[in-house]
Amino acid sequence: MTASLEPASATSGTGYRHELYPYAGGDEFVHGTLSFIRDALEGGEAVVVAVPQDKASLLRAEIHEDEAVRYVDTSRVARRPGRLIDAWQEWIKKHVAEGRPVRGIGEAPWDQVRSPAEAEQLRYHEWLLNRAFAHGPAWWLLCPYDTAHDSAGLQAMARCHPEVRRGGRTMPCEDYDPEAPYAFVPLTHPCDPYDEFTYSTGDLPALREKIAACAEEHGVTGMRLRQLHLAATEVATNSIRHGGGQGVLRTWSEDHRLVCEFRDAGYIQNPLIGRTRPDPTQIGGRGLWLVHQLTDLVEIRSTPDEGTTVRLHTELPE
Questions:
Q1: Backbone angles phi, psi at 204, to 5 degrees
Q2: How far is 140 from 39, CA to CA, in rounded Å?
Q3: Mind listing the pLDDT tens digit for each residue in 79-98?
Q4: pLDDT 10s digits, 228-285
Q5: Cα(68)–Cα(45) distance, rounded to whole angstroms?
Q6: Rounded to whole angstroms, how far apart are CA atoms 125 and 119?
Q7: What are the CA-CA distances from residue 17 to residues 41, 66, 192 (Å)?
Q8: Where do the domains of the chain lie, and which CATH numbers do they carry?
Q9: How far apart are CA 134 and CA 248, in angstroms?
Q10: How does 205-227 read in b/e, with b if 16+ C-beta sit within 10 Å?
């Protein structure tokens, strides 16, 4: 068990702080996170706790929920990284509006991750948090990570966090990469066999038919198919409008998911696009946000030289 976490430094509350907390076992998790919460409460700060239910139960046994401590149910979004930044903005909005300093504790349900793509997107989300909150509001997020997970995962998490907790102290994270690439690893090759279809203006009905045939073959029907059709239409329309007038669709199944991949010659410059809730007054710009709400996982890779690839993952029925 580590020593008690040190109190907030003088820089606490002056900007966004994002801190990795590697721990070993449940006792160390509870000890470190409880110290973080108690330090916050002593300083008059509010705390939002977003951790898996088994971890939340351990903390609830020590500190009950009240106006200052809020436990949020992450079951809807925890395994859908593209929705998490929007969720954090909603979770802390009330306290920020009241002018109260806020801390958060956020841990992904790593034991429930089903594929390398999902794990990579969860880590990428951690890096994107630094951009999403770079200009406010001021708050402090502690991210526990069980060292029992693979060491490569811990190294990748370190690249996403400017600070790290070790031995009860906060220190700069030497592995943090503020200029990380648009995504950390290249996309895997499509699984064989896969279907391919080139589309352009006027081909959206045929594209939806291709997706429906593949989806129904794998048991995706009803509402799930309608949601996939809507998401696919948004991505393909973007290809036609912004990606050179055409794109290539590939479909296959892997890791118990149906994958629809769209390739075009366009370039998405803003890595946060689709991950924050659009302003109700804005015109357009809602497509990729809608795509994240309609599908289970979205992977995007985009460079000026190679264009854009968007992969939509839909979980197959059990």
A1: -60, -40
A2: 12
A3: 899 999 999 999 998 888 88
A4: 999 999 999 999 999 999 999 999 999 899 999 999 999 998 989 999 888 877 666 6
A5: 7
A6: 10
A7: 17, 24, 44
A8: 17-172 (3.40.50.300), 195-315 (3.30.565.10)
A9: 35
A10: eebbebbbebbeebebeeebbeb
